[in-house]
Design brief:
This protein has 719 residues and is of the alpha+beta class. It has 3 domains: 109 residues, no CATH class; 263 residues, Aminopeptidase; 144 residues, TolB, C-terminal domain (Neuraminidase, 6 Propeller), CATH 2.120.10.30. The chain contains 15 helices and 38 strands. Keywords: Signal. It comes from Agrilutibacter solisilvae. This is M20/M25/M40 family metallo-hydrolase.
Length: 719
């Protein structure tokens, strides 16, 4: 009869007699283990008093035989709860008891003092979190991002992560040596997935009663609404009642290496695509969940204390066991937000159900997983779990062979989590010429005769904003782009006489900043683009005589990078954009004599790629923008003789779309940008002699929108 059976027999006898369970030290509390823990900073006192908050049903179901000093309590939902004390090492017994008797996980919050437990109940916001209306628009309309992601989920990658976490460490217990090593692997892995992204950061965070085990948080900063936060999390620790040579034997493959592996795959796919969210997204691997939701509780309460606007939380805890069930997953319906539940169900029905997957529902009781921490802090949360309870959780048999042996079930959860992230955080399209950060392109006008300047927000004359004039006509707008990464376009000025250069952040002259002077006026600013995936534009300079090329990183001459010169003056830079969605802008070249076309990927000749030649040089590139909403730059061509117009999607001649011709050649393409904010670029037309102005929404002539006429043709649109 094994130790687990002995425990259950002893517990049954105690229940019958009403006796309290004996207080004993844990099996690994020996000098060697204590020494290892001390060297790694593991904070664990097995005989220390821990104060738990649990439901009355759980208390009466057997925890009363372990706990002491019980006190009845209620939360703000009116639920009957109990505050009691146990020894730190007895938390393993409490967790096991909940598993065996209630067929669920968790079941309690843990605190270092009774005062903290009482404060937790006083500040509980569960009712608010469960019934509050959506804190953001829970809409499902981002198929362009989510559908390609779903197709990229790879089962072997998820399986490999589960395998590593469940075999490289005997356990991931919060108070063990191994439980302090495994978070570092998670941190390093996530850090590697976000390398070279200035908007991605990875941090470790501890809590007072997490035993020194750190929670890991990877943050992708939102481009448009950085203060609105989306959370996807799972717990990283494991627990078991079995020991091998004094070391806990808790592989925790399903509970919850599967959840962490699922989250890791979501991070990989989202970041590899170059995705930039509108809202901030935080991926979390919580510490010490198995001993009272400690890591997630500390994080959720910290967000509450900071007044953070968390608009939705998804919990992934146990994702890889489906044996004996016809369902693919279950939505947990208690202790979560009703509106967010409906959103998650909608995601499943929209993205997963058409592939034959099925869903069900279940309840899991008080404090069953980390979503409860967010709910108690007043934030909307949802929890999806595997369709049937894995019978060997919290035992040495919680291994990949028992739950799989593949990660096929976790693949489905990864797809749902990708949909959750893509639809709740949405996708920032990196709108060009957007001076106010509202996701719509604006028009910067300059009068080439008087030096007056105006801005039309969203190409609408009714939103006209007067801007300081620059009467010295030697000052010319050299380019427009976001040089400081604040998702607001800046205006770069160059003095054609002196070579001085200025920057107007967000098109505001009051914030004018001088850039380095380039006295040799043969140097021309040919393009602005984010060539280094920094989240901000660089300046691409070329000398008109020598063909020398330099790139000022972030507009800083002190960080100038030299490129291979292009001495042949027939080669001209005609645009820049991210044509392949790798997060780096590319430079588009055209030879005005031969009609050859090249791309310099990342703005370097070393990554040169030849495009289809257009030998009829009457065809001119008049714009580079994303006209179909796939976040890849496209090329807009116009024939200078016939007025024909064509788009090459993603710079590919094989995917071209013929637009309506405009045979009156006085109509010129004055600008391209997403003036309507629908994620697809529009074409701004201006009549060179009559001053009429039109928009073709999404480059579609049938969606022509006349704009306010500017009859003074000295007013020009700056690009």
């Amino acid at each position: 009869m094994n130790c687990r059976s002995l425990f259950l027999l002893g517990l049954s006898a105690a229940l019958l007699s009403g006796a309290s369970a004996a207080v004993t030290a844990p099996p690994d509390d020996h000098d060697h283990a204590r020494g290892q823990r001390a060297r790694l900073g593991v904070q664990y006192e097995p005989m220390a008093t821990v104060h738990i908050v649990t439901s009355r049903a759980t208390w009466e179901g057997g925890v009363r035989l372990i706990g002491r000093d019980a006190r009845a309590a209620r939360d703000n939902a009116g639920r009957d709860l109990v505050i009691a004390s146990v020894r730190a090492h007895q938390l393993d017994d409490v967790s096991r008891l909940v598993h065996e008797r209630e067929r669920r996980c968790g079941g309690y919050f843990a605190f270092a003092s009774r005062a903290q437990a009482l404060a937790f109940l006083r500040q509980d916001r569960t009712v608010q979190a469960m019934h509050t209306k959506a804190l953001a628009a829970y809409t499902i309309d981002n198929d362009r991002t989510v559908a390609p992601w779903i197709a990229q989920v790879e089962e072997p990658r998820i399986r490999a992560t589960i395998s590593h976490l469940s075999t490289a460490y005997p356990n991931r217990y919060y108070a063990s040596v191994q439980g302090h090593q495994s978070p570092q692997w998670i941190r390093d892995t996530w850090l590697g997935l976000g390398v070279d992204r200035s908007d991605v950061s990875v941090e470790t965070t501890d809590c007072a009663n997490c035993g020194g085990q750190q929670s890991i948080i990877l943050t992708v900063r939102g481009a448009r609404y950085p203060d609105e936060i989306v959370v996807v999390g799972g717990h990283q620790d494991s627990i078991s009642d079995s020991y091998n040579n004094g070391v806990m034997d808790a592989p925790g493959a399903d509970d919850d290496a599967s959840g962490i592996a699922t989250i890791t795959e979501v991070i990989r796919i989202a970041l590899a695509s170059g995705w930039r969210p509108q809202r901030t997204v935080k991926f979390m691997a919580y510490a010490a969940e198995e001993v009272g939701l400690r890591g997630s509780h500390a994080i959720a309460q910290a967000h509450r204390a900071q007044g953070a606007n968390v608009v939705g939380v998804l919990q992934l805890d146990m994702t890889n066991y489906t044996a004996g069930s016809a369902l693919s997953m279950r939505l947990i319906s208690d202790f979560s937000n009703a509106a967010l539940q409906q959103f998650v169900l909608g995601l499943f029905d929209h993205y997963l159900a058409p592939t034959g997957l099925t869903r069900g529902g279940a309840t899991c009781g008080y404090a069953c997983s980390d979503h409860a921490s967010w709910t108690s802090a007043g934030y909307p949360s949802a929890f999806v779990a595997e369709p049937t309870l894995f019978p060997y959780r919290h035992t040495p048999l919680d291994n990949l062979q028992q739950i799989g042996p593949t990660a096929a079930s976790s693949v489905n959860f990864a797809k749902l989590a990708l949909a959750f992230v893509g639809e709740l955080a949405k996708t920032d399209t990196g709108t060009t010429h957007d001076f106010d950060g509202d996701g719509r392109s604006d028009v910067f006008w300059r009068n080439v005769a008087t030096g007056a300047n105006d801005v039309w927000r969203s190409a609408d004359a009714r939103t006209r904003q007067y801007t300081s004039p620059v009467a010295n006509l030697a000052w010319q707008v050299a380019g427009i782009g976001d040089l400081d990464g604040d998702h607001r376009a800046d205006v770069v000025w160059r003095n054609a006489s002196t070579g001085a250069n200025d920057l107007w952040p967000s098109a505001q002259s009051s914030q004018r900043r001088a850039l380095a002077t380039v006295p040799d006026t043969g140097w021309k600013l040919e393009a602005l683009g984010d060539f280094g995936q920094r989240g901000a534009a660089d300046l691409f300079w070329r000398h008109a005589v020598t063909g020398q090329i330099r790139v000022w990183v972030g507009g800083d001459a002190a960080q100038a990078q030299t490129r291979v010169p292009v001495a042949n003056p027939d080669w001209r830079v005609v645009g820049a954009g991210d044509f392949d969605l790798d997060g780096h802008d590319d430079v588009l070249w055209r030879n005005r004599a031969t009609g050859a076309n090249d791309l310099w990927l990342w703005g370097t000749s070393e990554r040169r790629r030849s495009l289809t030649a257009v030998t009829n040089t009457a065809w001119q590139v008049v714009g580079v923008a994303d006209f179909n909403g796939d976040r890849r730059a496209d090329i807009l061509w116009r024939h200078a003789g016939t007025g024909a117009n064509v788009i090459w999607f993603s710079a590919n001649a094989a995917t071209q779309r013929v637009l309506a011709s405009v045979s009156d050649l006085h109509w010129t393409v004055a600008g391209v940008g997403d003036y309507s904010g629908d994620g697809q670029a529009d074409i701004l037309w201006r009549h060179a002699t009559l001053g009429y102005d039109d928009l073709w929404l999404s480059a579609d002539s049938t969606r022509r929108l006349p704009l306010t006429r500017v009859s003074d043709v000295d007013w020009r649109v700056m690009r």
